[in-house]
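Suppose a classmate hands you a notebook page containing two proteins, each written out with its sequence and a corresponding row of structure tokens. How would you begin to make sense of it? This section walks through that situation. The first entry is reproduced here exactly as it would appear on such a page.
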Amino acid sequence: MTNSIGEIADAKAIFIIGSNTSETHPVISYRVREAVRKGAVLIVADPRVTEMAKLADYHLRLRPGTDVALLNGLMHIIIAEDLLDVDFIEKRTEGFEKLKEKVAEYTPERVAEITGVAVSDLRAAARAYATAENAAILYTMGITQHTTGTDNVLSVANLAMLTGNVGKPSSGVNPLRGQNNVQGACDMGGLPNVFTGYQRVGDPQVQEKFAQAWGVPLSDKPGLTVTKAMNAIHEGKIKGMLIMGENLVLSEANANHAAEALEKLEFLVVQDIFMTETAAYADVVLPAAAYAEKLGTYTNTERRVQLSYPAVPPPGEARPDWEILVDLANRLGFNWSYSGPEAIFNEMASLTPSYAGMSYQRLAENRSLQWPCPDKDHPGTPYLHVGKFSRGLGQFTPVDYKPPAELPDEEYPFVLSTGRHLFHYHTGTMTRRSAPLEQHRPEELVEIHPEDAARLGLEEGDRARISSRRGEVVAKVTLTERVKPGHVFMTFHYREAAANLLTNDAFCPVATTPELKVCAVNVEKAD
């Protein structure tokens, strides 16, 4: 997030796109509700009628996968009606004329035809966002999990810069992270093309710095993302794998393809806190300690680093991840001698400019710090890009609308979108072991519009077979107008009705994120 969670409450306008905030980020949704109570305008772009959409002044109910067209259309209106921040554009950005030329093609009428959003709603939402004193954009995986995910994010950034809503409080571009330490994992180099702090592996100076610190030569070639790694297994290029804390048999798009890849491996190790569906494929399972059983830091969605202490000891043979990895490294012939998480953190901070001013002592004294925190006297950074961007001038990047990789046809006439609901989390590894949560939502409920259900002979509580070109599942039906006719929705929490057996593993060419939010399916009454 460019800004902080607390700032949301003071925004004058909030634009939520690709986020079911009240169910997937309920604590942050309270800040949104607080802002609305103070008079903020709320704009929600979502194909479904979520709780946030009900609260919104403007619900832009776009067709799944048409986000770029929608965003270009909003920018077209803002430019045409002279609602842009000319001073910010001239002083802080470059490439505006090319953006202007591109979005000129996206008239409100054309955008309405592509997205299904009325021209009047497009105009009203554009005006509300552009004229607000400060406006925040919140988004999640409804934006990124598309074959055009990178284009979607670039379009969001274009909109924020066009209106000068970057580098000031209660504004900015704010991706809400999907899991508790996704931000921290990315910060620590858990991406295949960077070291810690997003320092690129192909940068010779960065490579030399880490090679000297670790005393080993390092490759300048990026590694593989999960989706590409699954393909590489099928191609015979990867023979062994270590999976930590990832239940990809349920979470990966086209899950059959992922499961078949794991079966092809010569050797698979899974390191996790429970015996997951993925761990069932492993040759060796290494029991890891859970969050409340180990010392370490977490970095949350607002870049806030917090020190976490163990509340209870790990059970049985479970050990903290760092101990397992150090032991494994030494058995592979390395000489790792870290004394504990603090020593590892200190090494990381010495190599990572955005964390350089942090230490366990400072985190304990301050309770938390937000990066960038470049030196020991720095208080941390509540919001980014004050005065200038990290690259100097902000770059406008014009992008064109491209349809999803797979659209409905005669054989598969429905669009399936996937997501989460309030009571369970991700693949249910932890939450489905909670009896009270299971009592609330013990099974999958596939959302179908009553008009579609009537045509298919389905009633509330019936079982339906949902099939795609990749697989099929059977799930209980719930009839609702939360989805439009022709659109069905499922979560991916339930192994008994694993939605990702259906989803498309076509991916964004830049980020390689699969298109989990749009695929073509057929729905019929199950025997």
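The notebook's second entry, a different protein, reads as follows.
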Amino acid sequence: MKPLVKKSVMLLALIGMITGCNVVNSASSDSSSFNSVSSKPSSSSNTSTSSVCEHDFVYSSDENDAPTIIQSKGAKYVCSKCGQEKYENASYDLNEYTFADQSFMFDDKDHYLTIKGMIPYGCTVEYENNVRKEKGSQEAIARVYDEKHQLIDQKKANINIIDNTGMPNIRIDTDNKPVESKETYVAMTLSTDNCLDAYKLTDVPGEIRCRGNGTMTYDKKPYRIKFSSKTNMLGLNHGAKAKSWVLLAEYADQSMVRNSTAFYLGNSLFNYSNNYSSDYMPVQVYLNGKYNGVYVLAEQQQANSKRIQINEAAKNYTGTDVGYLIELDSRASEEDYYFSVGKGNDWSMFPGGGGWGGGEQPDKLDGVSLYKKEYAVKTDVYSQDQVNYIKNYLTNVYYALYKAVHGDGLFVLDENNNLVASPYTSQYETLNSIIDLESVFKMYLLHEYMKDVDVGFGSFYMFVDFSSTSKYKRLTFGAPWDFDWSSGNVNTSECYGSSGEYCSKNQGNFNPWFFMFYRTDFFKSMFKKYYSVFQNSQILEGATAQANYFASAFKSDYAKNYEKWNNLGQITPKYTPDVARNFKTHQDAVDYLTKWLSDRKKSLDQIFK
């Protein structure tokens, strides 16, 4: 696990003095929705290896022994004679959750203010005054307890119920020029209203174009917005400014909340642990004065100091010591810079295709062919050397994983990113030295829950940064994206049902990274711990509560969208399942999603218990 930096705050120090626990401070940011949380205590990390040594324990301040979300630790002591370790005064990683103010629009239903994020393994949360139905505001308290029910953290936040004025409006004016191409931008101005005064924009200049691949084939187009200067939209991502934003049309998803649900899960998993998942908000869009329907406003997946925090190459800089954002993308050849990793071409996905089709034989694992995949470079690069550098790096990381699982030995990368024998004796230590395994577990968990049909096809991101101020010195997975074809909104047998494992199987567009990771000697046991934290932090319950809140509070907005597009209860190419024909109202589509997610949880609870 990556080292965690301890911060000292007077309140937390005081709590530590009262409870006898060392406390790692929690970062603050966002909010959530639910009621009582617990997680299983972890086994002790103390092990006895000798009954002969008369131990002489000496305090060790190795910061690599900071607690993680699945492992509590305290002050470390090491025997100067035999090297045995012990820990005293348990401490917990309190950096991966937050408890912050949140507002709900009045819909005559109870709303819950809860912690958002990951509660440490072995801890519980109790709430006071966190439920409200009527308009107004109240202060809620969240208390976190360790496995001995000693208080280790306490936070306060306000839950607000406000007048229901519907979704914010985004008004785009292109001087009546059509927006039809995903290659060519059209000049525009953008305004926002029906929102807090602080978030109102008036005639902000920029450009707009269409975006997406399959979604571009629908009548209701998704859009990419690029402002002339960095601008925040509707307070997203704590007011962070950026030029690029995205409007997701959600035409293929009749619940219109699948991406928002995945973003909620992604925020909870990533946004408090030096990683990133897009912020989001449902909005109504008007184009040249005409109503265009409900969209989800989201952030562009990009290198940015407030988004994916890698150091992108300065204009015309050709050195390789920069950050790289990479997308596993079967359409990568349509990008300016791309490369492939692996061997053998999989022609089976194309009409008349029938296997690897000659050339290099694909790598195989457990009898399954791991065909090569294409990757697009999504950050600015200015030389072929930079492309060759990241290709060589990712290829060798990939084969370090493959060789470890295939039984060909343990390898790491040297200073030139070439494979060399690992100095470590275990798969875990070897792979964790070159890949952020915590990010792998979390990304796997999200995709395993959602059963995203595109998991091995596209919109799957990873990043690494070779600059001197890098936050990502290892390959890191994150920035989850594109979940409209997931969670039962798919007619393929692998994705439609809510039961069974998904990412570990040889199915459809399977992800070779996940397929290999699952077969390491450590993955299953450690993943169960991450799943336990996810399960007991009630993250899924918060996500389904959000889906139901959107459907209830914005009922008339969704109805207006379907009056415009008339696609409710229709089969939308290419994956929509037949069950969609039964949807008479927007709430029907949301109910189907939340029922699927609930059933999915029951299945995974049994698989990973």
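A careful reader of the second entry would note: The chain has three domains: 10-160, 169-249+275-299, 323-536.
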